Amino acid sequence: MLGRRSTRRARLLAGTVFVGAVLAAGCGSSSNSGGGGSGGSGSNASAGSALTVADVAPFTGTDAALGPTYLVSCDAATNAIDAAGGVLGHKLNCKSVDTRGDPADAVPAVHQMYASSAPAFVIGCTSDEAASVVPIFAANKTVSFCMTGQSEFDHVKFPYFYRLVPPDLSESYAMVAIAKNRGYKRLALAFGNDIGSQTFIAPAIAAIKKAGLQLVSNQTLDLSATTFRTEAAKIVASKPDAILTEALGPTEASFLTEVKQLNGGKMIPVIGTSATISPDWFKSVSNAIGGSALAGDFQADNLITESSGPAFAAFAKAIDAEKGKVGSTGDFSTYLTAPGAVHLYDGINLAALAMLAAHSTSPAKYMPFILKIGDGVPGAQVVHSFAQGAAALKQGKQIRYEGPGGPTSFDAYHDSAGLFQVDTYTPNGTVKVAGNLSTAELRSLGL
Amino acid sequence: MSVFVASIGFGLVTAAVLALAAVGFTLQFAVTNVLNLAYGGVMIVAAYAAYALNHAGVNVWLATIAGVVAGALVSVLLNSLVYTPFQRRGASPIAMVIVALGMTLILTFGTQALAGGTNVSYAMSQGATVKAASIELTVVQLVIIALSVAVMLLVHVLNRYTRLGKAMRATAANRSLARNCGIRTDRVVTSTWLISGALCGLAGVTFAINSGTFGATSTDVFLVLILAAVFLGGPGEAYGAMLGALVIGLATEVSASVIVSSYKDVIAFMILLAMLTVRPNGLLGARA
Amino acid sequence: MIYYITNLLVYAGVDAMACLGLSQQFGVGGVTNFGFIIFQAAGAYTAGVLSLPPDSANGAFQRYVLGLNLPFPLPLIGAAIVGGLLAIPFAAILGRRLRGDFAAVGLLVAAVMFNLLATNFVPLFNGAAGLSLVPSPLQGSFNPQSAGYQWMYGAFAILLALAVYWFVSRITNSPYGRTLRAARDNDLVADSLGKNLRSLRTSSLVIGGAIAGLSGGVLVGFINLWDPQAWGYAETVVLFAAVIIGGLGNHRGAILGAILVPVAFEEATRYIPPVPGNPNLIPALQWVVIGCLILVFLWFRPQGILPEPRRKLATRVPGDLPASPGDQPISPGDQPAPPSDQPVPSTDLAALASPQSRDGAPGPGGAEPILECRDLVRSFDGVRVVQGVSMAFRRGHLTGIIGPNGAGKSTVLAMLAGTLAPTSGEVIVQGQDVTHLPAYRRARLGVVRTFQLASEFKRLTVLENLLAAIPDQRGDSFRGAILGRRYWGAEERDAIDRAQAMLDRFGLLGLADRYAGDLSGGQRRLVEIMRALMAAPDVLLLDEPMAGVHPRLAHDLGMRLVGLCEEGTTIVMVEHELSIMDEFCDPVYVLADGQVLAEGTMAALRSREEVVEAYLVG
């Protein structure tokens, strides 16, 4: 029989564990965190200390590929900035914050991040957790560059929030525009049933209608299933000219394999979203259906990324410096066009340049410069890398930054959609630009 | 092509994999009365065991043998190290379910810890596609169906014509009486776990082959399909499991062709819940 | 830092509430609800759609039902109500006599299925994307991101958890809680003592469900978002692990488990830096550790860190109570007194069982049988075990039923009591046809049975076993439990006194606070009989009460039973011991092959050839 003593012992044990956990949380409270108020990075960084860029994204779980991809971009950008002298005497470094792909886990992860040391600004925040963490960033006055196309951010104002990737809405229109340009008349949709893929369906249907094209099949792929033969059969039976798709993880690989098999061994032309331009996606799908089969008939919409020119050169140099430091995630050169690499690199550069221009690391002071440097003012000198921009600012010039992601143009909600281009893969995974889409084209579809 | 007819073909493939798994599950349940919910975990361990060999260059069909052996070994260990000690202690059926769930976590996530979180595929070709009427299946899929049918026949022979089979049926019906009749029930139990584990391993590898790519958590939902097949046919009834696998396999793929495909697994769940509510002993079991 | 602490406080409060809800369902109610997470999810979704504006707002980027823009605290109340209501269909499904592990599997599957439905049926709760921008309570008047608000929210969550703790403790520590625990330990026996199992099970599920729904509502108001990722099957496993580790059947244990597992353990892993090259290693190992913890605890310490407390209710020790003159206490260990030839007046026993005097004439009498059965038939799988048995039992008689093994005696008894339904035939109690009445209703009419196999409530003390049987207790209802000790306290003290007196008469008062499961076979048998007596039955059906009991003790017991009959209790006893039949029973029925072979006094029966052939040897 359990006596009093054991109960007390048990309580003591439990209490110790709990207090220990809280103490551990308290440890590492940096001298930086401003204390009262909303205790975030609203204050100026003390001289000489490093500025941390936090990569707040899934590192584990279903979307575990995303966090590490963004980290590559972060390292590339910050290393290049440090090589060019840093920002106002501070070096930049990167830190990973794992949200586990789940909003309920993301919230404490972010609070713990602030508890240990508030970052200078944040990159990453995907559709998995953006909705729950962006308000926390805003409350802490932390600038964030997020990777979510969720429609929530299209028309709701979040201060401190910046988005350089297209809303899912416009991506859907872009995909249809690609189809129209290629002369495809019959289109099938195959999207996964997860957060990231779900928002493409309705706008795609609307765009197809407006474009006078025909929707022959619309299959939602249940990500918890492992075979999609019937869905593939339905699509093949409807004889589409092309399939519009996004389904991350192993789903896309299984699905496309089955489409190919049921179509007599031939691939049906595939049009993917910008999320399909990533080393991990290519590796997964090419393993399943073969690199040349994929490359033969695949297009993806993507925000314009440079593939040559001074911006690209600087970017490629920075990314290539990271080669060998990353585990095998597929063809490294894909990073050069992956949205998760390109746009976050641009975001980091924008923030760094804005700090320089404002002579301050305080967001209240440098945020207006993000818009100025991103959109440009009349007479501004166009720069293509941090080093260039820093040099121009030293000479007292006004600058406009145009990185590998092309020119930015922020709207009232701090979203910059930019222009679209069409990407394809080579059989070994290199990304090639196959064409452009103009805003007019998208507007004509009803965007 | 008629998608409906094609889906029947796909349903047969799913049914084939399900049959292997469900028969293994139910044979073991009949003899030991334990719902081995860690079954999905063992399937994945076997799939990865075959993958390890296949990745090192072995042909996938030979690697399947490794999977079968792995499944058998892990199952026997699972029983002797975990289930039997708890049963000897007089653990209630509910406690055994919780134990099984705990083991699932250990097996599945232990595999993930060792093998990594990314998905993998076997290096193999799917073979040519064979068409008949509207049914289109690859050679590999036909092999899976043939394999499954062959194993079902073997199980039938085991059940009906071998001594072990009779001993298993006796032990399943009444263990103490069987022991009193001179049947070495302990050995029968171990043999049952071996056979069930071998079937589980085979099911795991064929599942992985059929899915194209797989990861440590791929069998989470599949386990529910297995349970649906088992309960539809009647827990403990081998022929019931075969029938159940056929019905569930066909139902999921055919329903995907007829209704919105994202709900195709839901129909299996609903069948399972309906059986549990209305007729827990299954179609081939005794009336409750 | 502050925000991290307040975050942990809110999560601790929410997890504590969820674990308390589970503890009430599982630990106290004995319902293994593997679909538990559905209730929390339903609460969160409800709070979400009640507090959100209609889905056309915010640029119409989501689709969901309702959207009533209700102010705090209405969404929370709605969440709790929906959580409770959702439990009702679950209770209906679980009500059928489904094997425990089958039911558990069904619930697990239900959880996975609902998650799939929520993910795929977009117009309901916006599918995989879930509900975003869910307003925090009172966010119109306060800034939800300010430190002050966060502290208030944390305090609110903790206070709610404490309120829930107070609430479930009030229920569990009442006579109603005792009944719940008894039904958990042995539902068949509780049923035969007059407890309505379906209502008990429903109550456990509804209470647990409402609490879980409330916890979901509090959580969604904090993270402002709710999608299917947040409530997978994994979350249920974590909650179960928490309750098992913390302690089953102990509400403080549930809180402890909540702090240790979902909060401390999950947070601790956040501090471990990711392993380069294998970022999934730490979270995967986290799950492996949880699996191992479950197994380790179930093996070494299944009662958890804080086990269910043993309730010590005894207020007296042996020797306290005055012995009545002429009444010898039965003590199994003592030298047995020489058997007397007259039935010992056991007015005490009957009076102990129920304080009110009996209705109806005491002593054997009345031409009307108080209990009878007509043409009872029962088949099992086509085999007719009972083939047309008709018997009548007159008030105040001690009737015996004997017969060879397999004659169908226990089956007949079970059909009389209602724990088994007849294939055909009728059972009539005091002129009323009760054939289709379930056991618990018959118990309330005064027909109580004992069981052949050990059937004490193992995790209740001996005293609690007796108390559980008392019918019509004030505190033995949900309402009574809520009204608290002030309402049922006096009656309970009274009941304890009576139970202790009963224990004293049988010499077991010293064991009053021991767990009934720890007693020896003979002692357990006595406890069972005493318990049946506490139910104040009009008709007592005993299934081999003397089996394994010392012959002298059996004799004394027989005398007690005869004494009870003098008081007007009718007793029917299935037995093997012919000497008992000889001495105490009149009349005696002989059953063989499922039919009544003969009836009469033992002396008369012994002279009948067919009876001798069928059964009696020498």
Describe the protein:
- The complex is a heterotrimer of chains A (447), B (288) and C (618).
- Chain A is an alpha/beta fold.
- Chain A has 16 helices and 14 strands.
- Chain B has one domain: Orthogonal Bundle (ABC transporter involved in vitamin B12 uptake, BtuC).
- Chain B is 75% helix and 4% strand.
- In chain B, the strands form two sheets. Chain B has a two-stranded antiparallel ribbon with strand order 1-4. A two-stranded antiparallel sheet of chain B has the order 2-3.
- In chain B, helix 10 packs across helix 11.
- Chain B starts with a helix and ends in a 10-residue tail after the last helix.
- The mean pLDDT of chain B is 89.
- Chain C has 618 residues and is of the alpha/beta class.
- Chain C is built from 23 helices and ten strands.
- In chain C, the strands form two sheets. A six-stranded mixed beta sheet of chain C has the order 6-7-8-3-9-10, with helices on both faces.
- The chains are: A alpha/beta (447), B mainly alpha (288), C alpha/beta (618).
- Chains in contact: A-B, A-C, B-C.
- Chains A and C meet through helix 1, helix 3 and helix 4 of A and helix 1, helix 4, helix 9 and helix 11 of C.
CATH class of chain B: Mainly Alpha
Give the integer mean of the pLDDT values of chain C.
83
Assembly state here? heterotrimer
Kindly name the structural category of chain B. mainly alpha
Physical arrangement of strands within the biggest beta sheet of chain C? 6-7-8-3-9-10
Distance between the termini of chain C: 88 Å
- Count all strands of chain B and give the number: 4
Task: For the record, give the distance between the C-alpha atoms at the N and C termini of chain B, rounded to a whole number.
Answer: 44 Å
The largest sheet of chain B, given as strand count, sense and whether it forms a barrel, is: 2 strands, antiparallel
User: What shape does the CA trace of chain C take?
Assistant: elongated
Annotated CATH architecture of chain B: Orthogonal Bundle
Strand content of chain B: under 5%
Mean pLDDT of chain B: 89
- Total number of domains of chain B: 1
Specify the structural class of chain C. Answer: alpha/beta
The stretches of 5 or more residues of chain B where confidence is low (pLDDT under 50) are: none
How much helix, percentage-wise, in residues of chain C? 40-55%
